[in-house]
Amino acid sequence: MRISEISVTGLFNLFNHRIMMKLKDKITIIHGPNGYGKTAILQIISDIFNGRYFYLRKYPFSAISIKFDDNSELTISQAKLKNSKKGMDAKSLTFEFRSPDGNQDSYTYNPLARDIRPDFPLHSFEDIIPGLIRVSSELWMDRRTGEKLTLPDVIDRYGEELPISKTSMLRESSTPEWLKKLRSKIFVHFIDTRRLYSSRNTNTKLREPLEPSVVEYSKEIASVIQKKLADYANLSQKLDSTFPIRLVDQRASAMLSAEELEKKLSELEAQRQRYVEVGILDKERDFNLPLTKDIDESKLAVLSVYVDDVQQKLNVLDELASKIEIFKGIINEQFRYKKLIIEKQEGFHFLCDSNAPLLPDSLSSGEQHEVVLLYQLLFKVPPNSLILIDEPEISLHIAWQERFLADLTKITSLSGFDVLLATHSPEIINDRWDLTVQLEGP
Q1: What Rg do the C-alpha atoms of the chain give, in angstroms?
Q2: For 112-138, what is each residue's pLDDT tens digit?
Q3: What tens digit of pLDDT does each residue of 33-45 get?
Q4: In a 10 Å sphere around its CB, with 0-12 CB exposed, 13-18 middle and 19+ buried, how is residue 166 labelled?
Q5: DSSP 235-291
Q6: Who contacts 309 (Cβ-Cβ below 8 Å, separation ≥6)?
Q7: How far apart are CA 388 and CA 419, in angstroms?
Q8: CB neighbours (10 Å) of residue 438?
C-alpha cells in the first residue's frame, strides 16, 4: 500500500499544502522557506502511522488527507476540547477512512477519555517504558527526548504501546481494528534531524550520556549477520538431511554436464568469495574441482544435486551481501583516509590509512550523519515502506550532498521503498527538480 497524495489544511492555522507523491521515481522532495511546515508534515505522517497521537497535538491543523494508490483515503481532522477539571486545552482527532469500494469507517480519539485505573502502580512505568524516569509523584522525564511529562502525557504518549486488557493500566482503549489494520499495511520510518542518537536508546541513568547511533548500529549489524547466518545454517542442515533422498529421486534431465558443472562451481566460488569480502563468511581455501569430460554419470548426479544445494544456501545471504556492498562502497568512496571494515562478530569499525583502528563514534559529525543515514536506509527498513527524511544535508560536504540522490536511488532500487524528504539544499536536489514539490505561503 503506497501513499499517493498528502494534503493538509490549516497547518499552524495558516498553510494549506498539497503533495503529489512521485511514485514512479519513488523519491519526492519538499522544499520551502523555514516555518512553512516541512518537518511538521513529516512528523504528522510518522505519528499517524506509528500510533503516536500524542505528538499530533503539537501541530495545529484543521485536517490532513492521505490518499493511497488503491483509491482509498484517510482523513484526520482536529478539534479543540476543554478539560475544565485540569484547566488545560486538548485536541480530539477524528479519523475517517473511505475504502476503494466506498465503505466508510470513523473513529474519534479523545485523549481526555484515556484515564488510568486508580489501583495501577505508577512506579511500574519505569519498568514498562524504557527511558522513562519518575522525578516526582506525577511527573516523569523522557530520557530519550529530554521532555518532562505529566501523568496524562504519559498515558497519551505510551498508551498504544502498553498491554491493553482487563488488567492493564488504562480504563479504556478503543482504537478500532480497521485503523490498526490500515496502519499495519504501510510501514513508516522517520529519519529526523536528531539521528546521531537513537530515539530507542534505553539508557535510564540521568547523568550518563546516550550511546551514539553509530555505536549502536555497529553492534546491531553483527546481530543482523548472525541471524542471517543462522538461517543459512538451518537451511544447510535441512538440505543435508534430505540429500540422499533427493539424489535418488533426481531425474536425468536435471543432471548437468561436466562443462556446466565446472562453470557452475566457478560461479559459486565467486559468489562465496563475494560474501567473504563483505564480511559475512570466513575466508577458506579456494575450491577448484577439475572435471574431465569422461566423468561417469553417478558423479555427475551427485555434483548436480550438490551445486543446487550450495546455490540455495548462498542465496540466503545474497540480499544482505548486496546491502553491505552498497554500504561499504559508498562509505569507502566518500570517506578520505579511512576504510570501513565489517566483521560478523564485532560489527563495523574503521581503519585509518596508517592502519590504526578508529571507533565509529570518533568519526566527524558529517561522517556520522552519512553512516547513520545509509545504515537506516539499508538495514532498518523493510520493503514497501515509506521513509521520511528531514534535512539529509546536515553536516554533509557539498560534494556529498550533490551525490546523495544518486546514492538514494541506488538504495531504493534494491530495497523497494518510497521516500519523502524535506530539504533546504539545492545541492541535494541537484538536477532533479522534477522530483520536487514547493511548499508555498497563503
Answers
A1: 27
A2: 555 556 666 777 777 777 778 888 877
A3: 999 999 999 999 9
A4: exposed
A5: HHHHHHHHHHHHHHH--GGGPPPHHHHHHHHHHHHHHHHHHHHHTSS----------
A6: 239, 240, 243
A7: 6
A8: 12
